[in-house]
Write a structure and sequence with these properties.
With 240 residues, the chain is of the alpha/beta class. The chain has one domain. It is built from 13 helices and 8 strands. It has a 6-stranded parallel sheet with strand order 4-3-8-7-5-6. A two-stranded antiparallel sheet has the order 1-2. Helix 1 packs across helix 5, helix 2 packs across helix 3 and helix 2 packs across helix 13. The longest helix has 15 residues. The chain starts with a strand and ends with a helix.
């Protein structure tokens, strides 16, 4: 087990970005299926409200502290992580490593328009990257077999999945053993950012831990999800 803190019975990695990339590099070299969850307070709250979701998070091979609220909670409870490991930054670090080591990468998620725009920008940034395939994330359980057959035929070393929050991690968890892909990572709205559809928060917003607010200003319909944040803070206060 990697060095971790425990937050509501969920292991959260204490590794910094460099150590996390090294850990996942080893997983790829050993062909060891590893589900990466980029945890934020909303996901923690989902786990507290749904035992199946909690079990899924507990069984993931690596849970990194993506959300600023998770980093705050670990610090407040006197078992801090080294640093925040944002999912989109981890994804980009892994793409750089994939280009250097000739790993195969597959992208699954978002709309066809968004994923194609994201792929174009990724190719521009990583011209030697081996992209073995991509497809949109709009499919139901009746198409799972078709998607899994496609993934197996492409044999990626890295699979990045960007789907709805209630589908993304559970889908990876359900199929990771069958797929036998070394690293499977949920990337949330990263494809929207990489495509240019959404802007990422400026560095000052990130430093002030207000990236969530910047995204909310771009997508105000997300406000209902954000109502979980004060609930999360209250539970952390009570835990201490």
């Amino acid at each position: 087990m990697y060095n971790h803190t425990k937050l509501f019975d969920i292991h959260i990695s204490k590794m910094n970005m460099r150590e996390t990339v090294a850990y996942l590099t080893e997983a790829i070299e050993q062909k060891k299926p590893t589900q990466v969850i980029t945890a934020n307070p909303i996901m923690i709250m989902a786990a507290l409200e749904d035992e199946n979701y909690k079990r899924m998070m507990q069984q993931a091979e690596l849970v990194v502290p993506d959300g600023a609220g998770v980093v705050w909670a670990a610090n407040y409870l006197n078992d801090p992580v080294q640093e925040r490991v944002p999912g989109i930054d981890l994804m980009l670090e892994l793409l750089g490593r994939a280009q250097d080591r000739a790993w195969n990468v597959y992208f699954l998620g978002a709309s066809t328009e968004v994923i194609e725009a994201a792929i174009a920008n990724i190719r521009s940034r990583f011209p030697q990257l081996h992209i073995c395939g991509y497809r949109n994330g709009y499919f139901g359980t009746e198409q799972d077999e078709e998607v899994i057959t496609e993934l197996k035929s492409k044999n990626p070393d890295l699979l990045f999945v960007g789907r709805a929050a209630n589908q993304q991690e559970p889908w990876i968890h359900q199929h990771k053993s069958n797929l036998s892909i070394p690293v499977l990572m949920g990337v949330g709205g990263s494809f929207d950012v990489l495509s240019g559809k959404l802007k990422r928060a400026p560095r000052i917003w990130q430093t002030l831990r207000l990236e969530w607010l910047y995204r909310l200003l771009q997508e105000p319909w997300r406000y209902k999800r954000m109502l979980q944040l004060p609930k999360f803070m209250w539970l952390v206060f009570r835990k201490k």
